[in-house]
């Protein structure tokens, strides 16, 4: 019997294998229930790569990774492989990892300018979706420098500028891009949006300037009115740092040295009360006034006390038919009350005539306003607490 030829021997072997394959079920075959899961374990077809690749558990995947990062390949090949890796991460919306891949690709310093421009543009896109607009804009600028006609870089630069509300920058990016690509739909849309927003921003800016100028003029008029009345303001901490420690015209130190030259920052009592002095159309001043009741640790606040009104005008309303709930002994009747303001320099108390006007008191030579808000101490005349509170204090009557 003649020996079979090699080809025939091979065919016979294949026939034998195929017969065995038909009779014996393949143990590692995919089935309908898990084929997608198993398919995703194959490195070449993975949709998502594992966070940490163990060469022993994933030798095939580690091999592919080593090919991507193989230092034996040219810088261009390595950069291209890292670009593809970054693109895969980008598709998975893993923008942080895509930034790392694109950065590593740029570190290869390959001589392919177009490839580097793509790496910068892609990294700009990843930064954009991470919300890193400044970094994205820098990358778009770098890409455009390498490849001036790279439309994706130009569009990305315009988008970043728009997010940063740099509308002039958007227009510059778009105008440069439209010189190269006059009909590019995205650039035309971005330019139209930026132009509209810039017009609105310019309009708002003009309104804000007019408003600020008006407020500044009103403050200056207010300060002039206060100065004309001879009302003295204590410096705030800010104005104290700005000012000097020279003595005032009256030669006194302490509070006198702390007097503000009616500076704008000394006008507010908003921090304490939410209100501030204002001048009405008739040129009359209205002050935020604080009343202190030390016996009960209570306060009252009048947001707009007209300078021409007397203290009794307000006390008659505050302690009229409905007395405050903390006055359980019903002592705080208008006719029983005493009012004082304190000299912040000497600590003396000055008793106020309840029938006098607020302006008359504010013009007193020892009355100094702190934070633009007058404050007064209210006591019940002849009460035990009043006697104890005033004991040891020098009390004078205001004139």
From TrEMBL:
<protein>
    <recommendedName>
        <fullName>WH2 domain-containing protein</fullName>
    </recommendedName>
</protein>
<dbReference type="GO" id="GO:0006457">
    <property type="term" value="P:protein folding"/>
</dbReference>
<keyword id="KW-0677">Repeat</keyword>
<keyword id="KW-0802">TPR repeat</keyword>
<keyword id="KW-0175">Coiled coil</keyword>
<dbReference type="Pfam" id="PF18972">
    <property type="entry name" value="Wheel"/>
</dbReference>
<dbReference type="GO" id="GO:0005829">
    <property type="term" value="C:cytosol"/>
</dbReference>
<feature type="region of interest" description="Disordered">
    <location>
        <begin position="237"/>
        <end position="256"/>
    </location>
</feature>
<dbReference type="GO" id="GO:0005634">
    <property type="term" value="C:nucleus"/>
</dbReference>
<feature type="domain" description="WH2">
    <location>
        <begin position="218"/>
        <end position="236"/>
    </location>
</feature>
<feature type="coiled-coil region">
    <location>
        <begin position="187"/>
        <end position="218"/>
    </location>
</feature>
<dbReference type="InterPro" id="IPR019734">
    <property type="entry name" value="TPR_rpt"/>
</dbReference>
<dbReference type="InterPro" id="IPR011990">
    <property type="entry name" value="TPR-like_helical_dom_sf"/>
</dbReference>
<dbReference type="InterPro" id="IPR003124">
    <property type="entry name" value="WH2_dom"/>
</dbReference>
<dbReference type="GO" id="GO:0051879">
    <property type="term" value="F:Hsp90 protein binding"/>
</dbReference>
<dbReference type="GO" id="GO:0003779">
    <property type="term" value="F:actin binding"/>
</dbReference>
<dbReference type="InterPro" id="IPR044059">
    <property type="entry name" value="Csn1/TTC4_wheel"/>
</dbReference>
<dbReference type="GO" id="GO:0030544">
    <property type="term" value="F:Hsp70 protein binding"/>
</dbReference>
<comment type="similarity">
    <text>Belongs to the TTC4 family.</text>
</comment>
């Amino acid at each position: 019997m003649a020996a079979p030829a090699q080809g025939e021997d091979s065919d016979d072997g294949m026939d034998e294998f195929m017969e065995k394959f038909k009779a014996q079920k393949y143990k590692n075959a995919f089935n309908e229930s898990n084929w997608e899961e198993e398919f995703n374990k194959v490195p070449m077809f993975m949709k998502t790569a594992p966070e940490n690749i163990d060469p022993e558990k994933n030798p095939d995947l580690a091999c592919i990774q080593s090919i991507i990062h193989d230092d034996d390949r040219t810088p261009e090949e390595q950069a291209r492989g890292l670009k593809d890796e970054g693109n895969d991460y980008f598709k998975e919306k893993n923008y942080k990892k895509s930034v790392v891949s694109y950065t590593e690709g740029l570190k290869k310093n390959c001589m392919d300018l177009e490839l580097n421009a793509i790496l910068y543009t892609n990294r700009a896109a990843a930064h954009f979706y991470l919300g890193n607009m400044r970094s994205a804009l820098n990358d778009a600028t770098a890409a455009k420098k390498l490849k001036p006609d790279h439309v994706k870089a130009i569009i990305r630069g315009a988008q970043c500028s728009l997010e940063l509300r740099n509308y002039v920058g958007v227009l510059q990016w778009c105008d440069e891009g439209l010189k190269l690509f006059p009909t590019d739909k995205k650039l035309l849309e971005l330019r139209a949006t930026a132009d509209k927003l810039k017009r609105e921003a310019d309009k708002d800016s003009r309104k804000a300037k007019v408003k600020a100028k008006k407020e500044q003029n009103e403050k200056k008029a207010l300060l002039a009115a206060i100065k004309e009345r001879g009302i003295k303001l204590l410096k705030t901490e800010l104005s104290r740092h700005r000012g000097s420690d020279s003595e005032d015209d009256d030669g006194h130190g302490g509070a006198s040295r702390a007097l503000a030259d009616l500076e704008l920052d000394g006008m507010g009592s908003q921090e304490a009360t939410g209100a501030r002095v204002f001048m009405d159309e008739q040129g009359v001043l209205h002050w935020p006034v604080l009343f202190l009741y030390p016996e009960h640790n209570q306060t009252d606040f009048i947001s707009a006390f007209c300078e021409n009104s007397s203290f009794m005008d307000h006390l008659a309303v505050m302690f009229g038919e409905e007395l405050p709930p903390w006055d359980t002994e019903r002592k705080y009747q208008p006719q029983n009350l005493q009012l004082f303001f304190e000299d912040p320099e000497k600590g003396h108390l000055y008793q106020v005539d309840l029938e006098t006007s607020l302006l008359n008191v504010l013009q007193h030579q020892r009355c100094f306003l702190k934070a633009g808000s007058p404050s007064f101490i209210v006591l019940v005349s002849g009460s035990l607490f009043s006697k104890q509170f005033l004991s040891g204090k020098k009390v004078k009557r205001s004139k």
